[in-house]
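Dear colleague,

Following up on Tuesday's group meeting, I ran the structure prediction for the two-component complex that the binding team flagged. I've pasted the input sequences exactly as they went in, so you can double-check that nothing got truncated or mislabelled along the way. The structure tokens for the whole assembly follow below. Feel free to forward this to whoever is handling the docking comparison.

Inputs:
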Amino acid sequence: MPEHILVAVAWPYANGPRHIGHVAGFGVPSDIFARYQRLRGNHVLMVSGTDEHGTPITIAADKEGLTPREVADRYNKVIGDDLYNLGLSYDTFTRTTTANHYRVTQDLFKTLYEHGYILRKETLGAFSASTGRTLPDRYIEGTCPICGYGEARGDQCDNCGNQLDPVDLINPRSKIDGSVPVFKETEHFFLDLPAFAEQLRAWIERQEHWRPNVRSFSLNFIKELKPRAITRDLEWGVPIPLPEYADRDDKKIYVWFDAVIGYLSASIEWAQNRGTPDAWREWWQNPAARHYYFMGKDNIVFHTVIWPAQLIGYGKGGVYGGAAVGSPYAAPLQLPYNVVSSEFLTMEGKKFSSSRGVVIYVNDFLSRYDPDPLRYFLTIAGPESQDTDFTWAEFVRRNNDELVATWGNLVNRTLTNVYRNFGSVPAPGSLTPGDTALIAAVEGGFATIGELLDAARFKAGLSEAMRLAALVNSYLSEQEPWKVIKSDRERAATIWYVALRCVASLRVIFTPFLPFSSQRLHEYLGYDGYIAGPLEFREYTEEHGQSHRVLTGDYTTWVGRWEPATLPVGQVLREPRPLFKKLDEQVVEEELARMGAG
RNA sequence: GUCGGGGUAGCUCAGCGGUAGAGCAAACGGCUCAUAAUCGUUAGGUCGCGGGUUCGAAUCCCGCCUCCGACACCA
């Protein structure tokens, strides 16, 4: 029976282009998972969007002489294009500046406030004397009151490591323009996390299927919960939905509070856009639905503690918590089923840093290389369970010696031989025990690799798929059908049939990992339709007349099934071409020189 | 500083209580259908250091060295 699976992907922040470390953490793993679940026949809803509020966007806007909205527009487009070009199959990739998102965010805020889970408190905040804007602690520097270090930050001294309060800095100044900050009392709203501590602890303890680091980190985190500020003195954000703040433009909901709500608001938008406004409830109010969240390790507590607290506190309240007329679903909004966090990717041994030129942007990468080799590398050598290193030498090697040599070559030698000698799927004679053993081994991959993907073990899944491909190469070397065909055409036809049938099944197995090349293989083998087709952008206009672009696709028409391929004898093959390109070793030096120059 | 995660073959990584693994690189051999691709064999590690628990530890515990993260207004 098909299940409802929500694939909730971290929202990339729209203050600049994203680098390959970002998509390694949230993008590629979530897409492998979603594509696999669709092949299984499950009802997948994969949502995300660009995260467009917060101080870093306003700072980027000041720097570039633009409005925050213009910055968000620019990078929403860049990031959306990147995800499209990588083949990340979102059902809805939207943005946090839609009217829909504002509406949902304000409903959650208002409902939590009415339920008593949002507290008001006066705090001392730092403001820039020149612009009047809030200065986040980390944008203030001065002399450390403890060790005397001259360039301590407002939140922490990098010299002695002590946590600081910006009020205590000697000679504080703004890191942005050098002016002396002004400190004044300001009211803020706090999410009462301690109120949820016991429920959260009990809930997290039950999640034994979570990765151990995610679970223990979260349990540790909730030992010392304090109310957490969810508003900021900032003009760029979702307005606070209380009458006394209706006319004020200096205080907004904090970006983190609204960004996680995006998972819900994007689901609602998806349902609205396809003309079935209540369809999102099949995922959010269906107790049997499972929600998987994908993100980098820096985001864990937002998804295991803060967002669940928001959902628990919202309960069955508000506009979206209750039952819809005629809907069979009335349960409270679903909590995460699994929170899959990745570690970090480093670059030639160093931490990514755009300011220091240690960076490879997705769009730059894809302007010179194909998406599947990048997806391959980020899966087989990605930061799934620990930090891993990207080097150009390793990328070229993985591409040439693994992807091209093992899988690409198996496909190419099989298709080329069959196409040339038979033109269509040859009729096999009787199969030997060796033939059936190979077929059984490859087809067993649907069970073993399926289990690995269900458990979000993508690296192990892809390794196993590669092992199966190598098995078929080994079979061909042993059987030598190119020799056999000279004396026994029927036996040669049988060998090629066996190899081709294995390739046809591997085509399905590789689809979640390598959708672009799998689609081409699908066509070469003579199949019709999409096993992994194109994505599309659609433009939607909201009630206030503003429109925005959504990345989506018509995935229900795709034809793949996560099961051994049927390969009809006589199916006519299309002329094959190599699936992947071998890269020249020179690429390594060129890319390193490019990075040095940038 | 506090908390957490790493340190395993030349390289990149898996294993996480029961005789040390994979891929690549290296050496040798086979094949020549295939993008000079492939297949087989061999070699290669006192599993960061020092203690401890255990019949038995890379795997659990303690200490140390080292690298990397998180630590509320950095998404």
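The first strand of chain A starts at residue 4 and ends at 9.

Cheers,
M.
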